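step 3/5: co-fold with magnesium ion
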Amino acid sequence: MIQLKGIGAAGGISIGVAYKLGKEEFVVFPEAIAWEDIPMQIQLFEEALIKTRREIIELQKRISSDMGQEEAQIFDAHLLVLEDRMLIEEVISRLKKEQLNVAYIFSEVLKKYISVFLKIEDEYLKERIADINDVGKRILRNLLGKEKRGLEDLKEKAIIVSHDLSPSDTAAMHTKNVAAFVTDMGGKTSHTAIMAKSLEIPAVVGLEGITSKVNIGDILIVDGNTGTVIINPDDETLRNYQQELVKLKNIAERFLSVKELPAVTTDGRSISINANIEFPDEVSSVKLHGSQGIGLYRTEFFYMNRKDSPSEEEHYQAYKYVAEQMNPHPVVIRTLDLGGDKFLSQFQIPHEMQPFLGWRAIRFCLARPDIFKLQLRAILRASVYGNLKLMYPMVSGIEELRQANGLLQEAKDELRQKGLEFDDKILVGVMIEVPSAAMTADILAKEADFFSIGTNDLIQYCLAVDRGNEKVAYLYEPAHPAVLRMVKQVIDAAHEAKIKVAMCGEMAGEPSLALILLGLGLDEFSVPPQVIPELKFIIRAIGFKNVQEIAYEAMKLSTGTQVEEFARKKLAEILR
Ligand code: PEP
Ligand code: MG
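step 4/5: write tokens
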């Protein structure tokens, strides 16, 4: 049993089998076979060996003519592995003894060989590991009759283990059998982590070196609440976690009991609890968790895992669907926020030294009115089917808001010329996620219909901490007094101008911090759908006067840790 500590990126606990993405793409599950099927399994194995041999000889020939004799000789070692009698005999004898599928037996024997070689001191023999690994994978691929196995082939529920996952990898998991994921890299609010929440699976990131410690088929416990991952747990640990799973389920049921009730404090203050989504088909989960609307519909994922750009019609159909499904509840569509860690291959974005400070989000959209207006027209056209609003990401000052609104006006004129209908009074909000926007919130509030505080970015810029970097993750503190002061300033400026303030960053979904945010006067929370019942439960248990006092006390504290401890204590008192 090995226990590792990383950063809990998405809550919950999962117990399952490891599936490694990246270098080792294979997952082989044991399957029992009948005694009479053994000859067929041996034949499969022999055929895979012959096919692999043919492939290697082919490759050798090609390399010999392209690169020369010497390079081609590297593959002699691979051919030797194929002829290794000991390896072949061990597979056949274990196959007869254990009566499990040959692919599984072979992967086990391969693992054993590699671990034996790993222990050898001889440098030459150590180098053979790469050869064994390489040939082993080829044989496995042929045994499984696959060209290359990736996430697409995941048949059983598994836990993904990977060095890193790009948002598009995570987007691909959307329809797959993924129980949880763990990565070497990443921070709490990296987009990979956010995607895990929307997939409603636990995730632990920033586990430096987990990929080298886990083998495919290992049993893993992923505890996204504490950031713990346990590899091949002992019986007692496994039992404890299974009990914890039952406990968590009971707590979730307690929260779910209030999901359809309004979020009103004991002294009558009404709060909107909305959901964050990435995909149109998440509306069913949103409804299931009792949301009153969608406070953040991220639209970048629309562009991912495809070579071309979505057409206006595709945008329109997606927004129309969400608008209709949620009607009469509001849906806030956030315009394209590409850049930073949300990189889209369709657009030729030059490599930048500091992508988070670079050509991203509204900056990109203002420079590419063709792409921006296409999306704006689609949102406007869909606005007649429900209660749609839109908001711009990464606004850093009033000029950007005015420019974006200028393009919105052009988009409206274009639709008018075509005689197409739209909601001319569609509300337009500004995301507050750049410190300069927070500091000039009073100026922006005069020309915005609403604010939505994007704390994921606001915190990274305010504290100068890369949100996706595990090395500095300890500095990424939502409860830092600097962050709280900015949030308070934004709320006060908005209320002065009589507009509403939402928060759609991950901070809004931290139950203990919700007390402080409520006390500061936040009007709306937009959170991953599964957090909604818990937030409602908390809001229904407190008085507004009470949380105002809590916020007042919290603002006097001098460190993020103190604020967090204080808030957690207060929440525990309330929930008790
Ligand atoms: C944010 O920055 O808080 C936010 C909601 O936007 P994203 O996480 O998509 O950058
Ligand atoms: Mg953001």
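step 5/5: annotate
The first strand starts at residue 2 and ends at 5.
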